[in-house]
Amino acid sequence: MPAPAASAPSPIVATPVQVRRARFDDLGALVALEQSTFALDRMSARQWRRHLRSTSADVVVAVRDDRPIGAAVVFHRRGTDIARLYSIAVAAGERGGGIGRALLDAAEQAARARGGRRVRLEVRSDNAAAQALYERAGYRAFGVHPAYYKDGADARRYEKLLAAPG
Ligand SMILES: CC(C)(COP(=O)(O)OP(=O)(O)OC[C@H]1O[C@@H](n2cnc3c(N)ncnc32)[C@H](O)[C@@H]1OP(=O)(O)O)[C@@H](O)C(=O)NCCC(=O)NCCS
């Protein structure tokens, strides 16, 4: 087959992103994502392992070619209809394309599936991107945890009332 002419446009193949429940064999990719995303307060491999095994947590991943490029973790507790979005991250080169929103939607769906009516979360007060994501998705700020993070940064608390199922 002849070599393509130098001026021929290179084909652009957009691989779709899907969101699915995380599996145990995603562990390596989840740890790598965590390390490349967060400088402080990182989850260790051990913590990820615990969340993947936990019956009171849901871990969802956005995947391309079945490889995680984003993840979210939701915690559930007995006796309350408030779910907690514990973590959400999208690989740096993949941001701004709706993956964070897709993960947030999946996290809310996971909460609803367990009878959750509200989702709460904490976010660094200097994390404008994450606050924009939450506010666009209907979360409202309702408080502050002063000096919540290891470096002394405050956390803003957000909450969303989930629509009733159906
Ligand atoms: C926060 C994060 C998950 C967002 O993921 P993302 O895939 O880039 O987000 P999306 O493309 O789905 O954007 C969703 C909305 O958030 C807003 N948003 C996202 N990044 C933004 C930015 N840097 N500045 C302003 N708004 C932003 C967009 O306006 C978008 O709303 P729109 O589509 O209605 O315009 C991603 O930036 C990330 O992984 N950051 C590092 C980890 C982190 O901070 N996690 C949150 C800890 S609480």
Produce a short descriptive summary.
By secondary structure, this protein is α+β, with helices and mostly antiparallel strands. It has helices at 27-37, 45-53, 99-113, 128-136, and strands spanning 18-21, 57-64, 67-75, 82-90, 118-124, 140-145, 155-161.
What percent of the residues sit in helical stretches (DSSP H or I)? 25-40%
**Strands of the biggest beta sheet: in what spatial order?**
1-2-3-4-5-7-6
CATH structural architecture: 3-Layer(aba) Sandwich
Bound molecules: coenzyme A
What count of helical segments does DSSP give?
Answer: 4
Which parts are unreliable, with pLDDT below 50 for 5 consecutive residues or more?
A: 1-8
Nearest-integer average pLDDT? 92
Q: CATH class, anyone? A: Alpha Beta
Order of helices and strands: EHHEEEHEHEE
Shape: globular
CATH fold assignment? Aminopeptidase
Percentage of residues in strands? 25-35%
The number of distinct β-strands equals 7
- The radius of gyration computed from the alpha-carbon positions, rounded to a whole number of angstroms, is 18 Å
Helix/strand-derived category reads: alpha+beta
Give a short account of the largest sheet: 7 strands, mixed
Distance between the termini: 55 Å
Can you identify the CATH superfamily? Answer: Gcn5-related N-acetyltransferase (GNAT)
Q: What number of structural domains do the residues give?
A: 1
